Amino acid sequence: MLSLFSKYPGLEKRIPHYKLGDYPTPVGKLSTLSSELKVENLYVKRDDLSGEPYSGNKVRKLEFIYANILAKKIKGIFVFGYGGSNFVVAANIYAKKLGIKCLTFLVSQVNANYVRKNLLVGTYYKAKIFHYSNYFTMTLGSIYYYLSFALKNRSLPQLASFGGSSAIGTVGFVNAAFELKEQIKNGDLPEPDFIYVALGSMGTAAGLILGAKAAGLKSKIIPVRVVMKAYTNEKTLNKLILKTNKYLHKLDDNFPLFPIEAFNYEIRHDAYGKGYAYFTSEGQEAVKLLREKEDIKLEGTYSGKAFAALIKSARNDSLKDKVVLFWNTQNSVRFEDQISKLDYHELPKSCHQYFDNEVQELDR
Ligand SMILES: *Cc1c(COP(=O)(O)O)cnc(C)c1O
User: Fold this and answer.
1) Given CB 3.0 to 4.6 Å as the disulfide criterion, which of 10, 13, 18, 121 pairs with 67?
2) Is the pLDDT of residue 112 over 90?
């Protein structure tokens, strides 16, 4: 049973859940880096091993998003993201598995190898992809397809939040905090003083912050911002935490409603760099360090920047006697075989730019 449901059985009766991943995800000690960075106790939570055929942090959210769609007999979902969005890849793969129609709306981003890869994985899974140069044209495009979906299917599709970070998706990470609490109880790791995690559409961090409070963990969450501050900041994060808290409290009033001051977190704004998905040299250094010392793969858009923030604090000596947990959010399933023979010309024309133009300099 899910850790959240065993603590709050009332929620189990009211929240649809469909298991897609393998839990609990392992925790491990980063022994080599512990001594190298002079952090007394450095651990990693391996959500990069959260499942097949696609892992990473989006799986926990999709378990709740798709269970809700199935329970309500909704016929399809529209998903939105940047050109190389990991969420839309995960959403397409698991939609196919569950027989849910999925339409994908992408907006232009800076070029990187993982964008090419994710687009080809989408092609492999026969994703219906529409790509736009800006939010305005994406919104117009999705309205057109929304209406035609409604006429054709005589029902409305679900509109997914960016990154799957609705209150429902965020419950996946409230549960993840309860799962971590059980691992601490089992002696798999000591209770962390700090939990570092990448902060994008915010569902991951919001769920962990709310879940840590509800599970009685003292850990301070350190969400490391990797998207524009206009979207992702203390105010918008608080809003998502409170919305998810209200949702859970409404379904089972044993789940407490916390005041906003109760939450223990501090956003890091200093690892962002030039923009979303623009790699930074500190982020790339973090990726290299994890690969060489611990054989763990990170990437430059999210997890590398999050770990770079951890390294910076370690070098300032502020983590010296602490127990620090790094939450690895990255997918680790490789798709080389599936995509090696695919031709990007199968993608819509507006996606060809990612293949015709060079990737950003730090990714070459
Ligand atoms: C989406 C994503 C994140 C950010 O999670 P949010 O819930 O959107 O804040 C972090 N890491 C990776 C690899 C992701 O794909």
Assistant:
1) 18
2) yes
